[in-house]
Specification:
single chain; D-Maltodextrin-Binding Protein, domain 2
Length: 354
C-alpha cells in the first residue's frame, strides 16, 4: 500500500476515534450525574458505615455488566475489561460524593481510619491492670513538636509515654521521633510483648517496634504483634546498621490512627497510608492498586503476609504515598468494598538517617 494512502487511513481512523471519545465524554457526564444521585440516596442510610454487612450493602447497588451475547470472542474480552474498570470508577465516584458528605460530620475519622468499635483494653478491668514487672523507670525527654504546613504546633500531648525495648537501634529511632514530637516520658521494657501491652492496657500512649528491613523485608513476628495488639502506625523512620548495609524501618505506634488532616504536608516528609487486606474473587491486588492509581496514590511497597489459618493463602500489606492524592476517597472505597480490610496507619515517613 502506498505510503500516502496509509497516512490518510491513519488520519481517518484517528478522526473516528476522536468522535467516539466525544460521545463517550457526553455519556460519562450523564453517568456521573446518576452516580451523584445514587450517592445522595446512600447518604440517607445512617447505618451504612457502622453495619457489619456494609460491603454487601454497598456492592448490591453496583451491578456488574456483561458483554452482549452478540459480541465476538475478541470484542467480548475487550468490553469485559472496560466494564470491570468502569465498575471501579463508578464506586470511586460514589465514594467521592459520600466523602464530601461524611467529612464535615466526622464520620471519616471515626469509622474509616480508626474504626467504629472501641479499642480493646479500654474497659475498667484492663485500665486497672497492675503495673507490669517488665518495665523500668520513666524519663522525660523534650523535643520539638510536630509541625504542619502552616507552621502551627500539632500537639500530640505533653508527657506522653513511649514504651520500647532499649537497644542502640531503638534509641536512635526514639531520637528521630523526638525531633517531631513534644515532651515524652519513656518506659523501657524487657521484651516486645511487654512493649505492646503497655499501649494495649493504657499504661503507655505509644510504643516503638521494628517492622521491616532492607535485607529481610517484612519482619513477620513484629507484624503479628501489631495485629494482635491492634496497634496503628503514626510515624516511621529508617535506622541504618553500623556498616550502612542494612536499613531497618522502625515505627511509632498507638491505639488510634492520627487523622491525616492533622499531619498532611509536615516537614516535607512523604505521607504514607498503610493497610492490609485479604484478596477474593472481587477484590484482587490488581483491582486495589488500580483504584489507588485513579486516586493518585502511588504504591510505595507491597508485601504478601501468610495467613495464620492457612498455608496457601496470603494477605497483602500495602503502603501508598499519599502526597497530592485523594486519600479520603480511596480509604472510603476500601472500607465499603473490601470485607477483610484493615487500615494500619496514616503517617509520615521520616526516611533514613542523614
Amino acid at each position: 500500500m502506498p505510503r500516502f494512502q496509509s497516512s490518510e487511513l491513519y488520519r481517518i481512523i484517528s478522526d473516528n476515534l476522536s468522535l467516539l471519545n466525544q460521545e463517550f465524554t457526553s455519556v460519562e457526564e450523564r453517568r456521573l450525574a446518576h452516580l451523584c444521585d445514587r450517592a445522595a440516596l446512600l447518604a440517607r442510610d445512617s447505618e451504612l458505615l457502622t453495619s457489619e454487612d456494609r460491603c454487601e450493602r454497598f456492592g448490591q447497588i453496583f451491578q456488574k455488566e456483561k458483554p452482549s451475547e452478540e459480541a465476538t470472542v475478541q470484542s467480548a474480552g475487550y468490553i469485559d475489561g472496560c466494564l470491570r474498570a468502569q465498575l471501579i470508577q463508578d464506586k470511586l465516584a460514589v465514594c467521592g460524593f459520600l466523602s464530601n458528605y461524611y467529612r464535615p460530620i466526622g464520620w471519616l475519622e471515626r469509622c474509616i481510619y480508626s474504626g467504629d468499635e472501641a479499642i480493646k483494653g479500654n474497659s475498667d478491668e484492663s485500665s486497672g491492670y497492675e503495673k507490669s514487672r517488665n518495665t523500668e523507670s520513666s524519663t522525660i525527654v523534650k523535643s520539638n513538636s510536630l509541625k504542619n504546613s502552616n507552621d502551627n504546633d500539632v500537639e500530640l500531648g505533653s508527657a506522653k509515654k513511649v514504651a520500647y525495648l532499649r537497644n542502640a537501634y531503638a534509641d536512635r529511632a526514639f531520637r528521630r521521633f523526638c525531633e517531631q514530637l513534644g515532651e515524652l516520658s519513656v518506659v523501657y521494657c524487657t521484651d516486645f510483648e511487654s512493649v505492646c501491652e503497655e499501649v494495649y492496657y493504657g499504661r503507655a500512649d505509644m510504643c516503638i517496634l521494628p517492622l521491616d528491613s532492607s535485607r529481610d523485608a517484612k519482619l513477620i513476628g513484629f507484624v503479628r504483634l501489631v495485629d494482635k495488639y491492634e496497634l496503628k502506625i503514626i510515624l516511621s523512620c529508617g535506622i541504618m546498621s553500623p556498616d550502612q548495609s542494612v536499613t531497618t524501618r522502625y515505627a511509632l505506634l498507638a491505639k488510634n490512627i492520627e487523622y491525616p488532616s492533622r499531619i498532611d504536608g509536615t516537614s516535607g516528609s512523604p505521607l504514607f497510608f498503610e493497610f492490609s487486606f485479604v484478596p477474593d474473587e472481587t477484590n484482587t491486588l490488581a483491582g486495589v492498586l488500580a483504584a489507588s492509581e485513579l486516586c493518585r496514590l502511588r504504591p510505595y511497597k507491597v508485601d504478601a503476609i501468610p495467613l495464620t489459618y492457612s498455608d496457601n493463602e496470603f494477605s497483602y500489606d500495602v503502603v501508598l504515598n499519599c502526597n497530592g492524592g485523594e486519600l479520603d476517597i480511596f480509604a472510603l472505597y476500601m472500607y465499603l468494598s473490601v470485607p477483610q480490610y484493615e487500615p494500619l496507619g496514616v503517617y509520615l515517613n521520616l526516611g533514613g538517617e542523614n
